[in-house]
Amino acid sequence: MKLLYENARLVNEWLERYGVKFGIYKDDKFIEQLFPFDAIPRIIKADKFAILERGLIQRVCALNLFLKDIYSSRCILRDKIIPEEFVYSSKGFLAECCGITPPKGIYSHISGIDLVEAADGWYILEDNLRIPSGASYPMIAREITRSISPETFEKNKVCENRNYASILSKMFEEVNCGGINVVLTPGRYNSAFFEHSYLAEKIGAVLAFSRDLEVIDGVVYYNTFNGKRQRVGAIYHRVSDEYMDPMVFEQNSVIGVPHLMEAYKKGNVALVNAPGNGIADDKGIYYFVPAMISYYLGEDAILKNAPTYLPFFKRNEKYVLENIEKLVIKDVSEAGGYGVIFGQELSKDEINNLRNVIIDNPRRFIAQEVIDFLDLMVLDGDKTVPRKADLRAFVVHGKDVKVWKSGLTRFSRNPDSFVVNSSQGGGFKDTWIISQ
Question: What is the distance between the alpha carbons of residues 266 and 261, in angstroms, rounded to a whole number?
Answer without folding.
Answer: 8
